[in-house]
Specification:
The chain has helices at about 15-20, 55-70, 100-120; strands at about 5, 25-35, 40, 40-50, 75-80, 85, 90-100, 120-125, 130-135. The chain is an alpha+beta fold.
Length: about 150
């Protein structure tokens, strides 16, 4: 099974957790990123993700290699889903094992930040009154004061 992949089916969190579990692992952290309904007062109906799959998987593997150098003893598995995702669907999973919990938490947080920085995955938010491709260079539209 692949440790770093882009998929178009629902994410099986346990699969990625199992990939990093081994006898020297004293800790396993699992992060799942979900589609949320409200962002900055704007109601999202669903998200659509696209990726350049070969490059995205290569970049995920590079992030994993960076983590293994930065935190010796960690093992990593990551997947990001593409296609149309509804509210509460899992968009990304990151599983990290390490001998100790502190390193597992730190490495896991590092992974999600690096994914956002370097992996060629694009997100379109579809709202009640429009849609827009969202990236680091974009701002959310200003709307009412609904819950976030």
């Amino acid at each position: 099974m692949k440790r770093y992949e882009i998929i178009d089916t629902p994410i099986d969190v346990q699969k990625y957790s199992d990939l990093v579990l081994h006898p020297a692992a004293g800790a396993v952290t699992v992060f799942t990123g979900h589609v949320r309904e409200w962002t900055h007062g704007v109601r999202t109906l669903y998200l659509a993700y696209e990726a350049y799959v070969p490059m995205a998987e290569k970049k995920l593997a590079e992030i994993g290699a960076e983590m293994e150098v930065k935190w010796p003893g960690v093992q990593v598995a990551m997947a990001h889903r593409i296609g149309e995702l509804k509210i509460s669907d899992i968009a990304v999973v990151i599983a990290v094992s390490s001998p100790h919990r502190k390193e597992a938490y730190e490495a896991n947080e590092y992974a999600i930040e690096r994914i956002k920085e370097v992996v060629p995955i694009w997100k379109k938010e579809i709202w009640e009154d429009g849609e827009e491709w969202i990236g680091a260079q974009k701002k959310y539209p200003e709307k009412g004061s609904e819950s976030q």
